[in-house]
Amino acid sequence: MSGRKKIFFILHKFFIAVIIIAAALLTASLIINITMIKSMEKYVYSNISDIPPRPAVMVLGAQIRGKTLSPILRDRVNGGIALVRSGKGGKLLLSGDHGDIYYDEVNAMRLYVLENAPEIPHEDIFMDHAGFSTWDSMYRARDVFEVKELLIVTQKFHISRAVCMARSLGINAIGYGLPDEQFGIQSLAAWQFREYFARLKAVYSIVFNIKPKYLGDKIPITGDGRATWI
Questions:
Q1: pLDDT band at 3 (very low <50, low <70, confident <90, very high)
Q2: Cα–Cα distance measured from residue 12 to residue 29, given in angstroms and rounded to the nearest whole number
Q3: Residue 207 contacts by C-beta under 8 Å, 6 or more apart in sequence?
Q4: What are phi and psi of 66, to 5 degrees?
Q5: Could you tell me the maximum CA-CA distance found in the chain, to the nearest angstrom?
Q6: What's the CA gap between 38 and 185, in Å, rounded?
Q7: pLDDT of res. 1
Q8: CB–CB of 76/60 below 8 Å?
Q9: Residues sharing a CB contact under 8 Å with residue 20, sequence separation 6 or more, in sequence order
């Protein structure tokens, strides 16, 4: 075999190996995504009337502009309010990013609740200022707020991962999956693309029990939520 043919043969074998590895990784990622969605279906609800009550409702944070909630976050907070109003949840746990003084999802959510649902007792509104990710929110719900049973509210594209993470941590969690079709094809496609890889990261967090960025003192969900108002 000439030198040129030998190089071609080696390159051919290399590319075949790359294709096989890529196909295996793609198959594995598809299996992880499908398994996570399908295994969580029995814990996810789309109709409020079908949801069994839980002591606490968690609203997961999303983007804000100043103190204005983005449409996706406004839907989540409205969903949390609806669950409390319908008697499906007692305490309201608002978990989001308050990483610096200039960006504060949780206080924006709290102010929205106070303005739009004044009937909810202030002591029932808890704020998790270090919910920097879905995993951090669930971990802190268990270890900081001592939540044992939880009703999570977020959009359909996100709910399976959130419930899976919570249940992997020993929380008896169920989810209320909000409709997301109203956000448009482009936005929804981008979120679903991101969520595909986020589910893979979720498995890593679950398997290796990754610690959240912050934990801190315990603030039992059975207490007074105003202790978290900062």
A1: low
A2: 26
A3: none
A4: 70, -120
A5: 84
A6: 23
A7: 55
A8: yes
A9: none
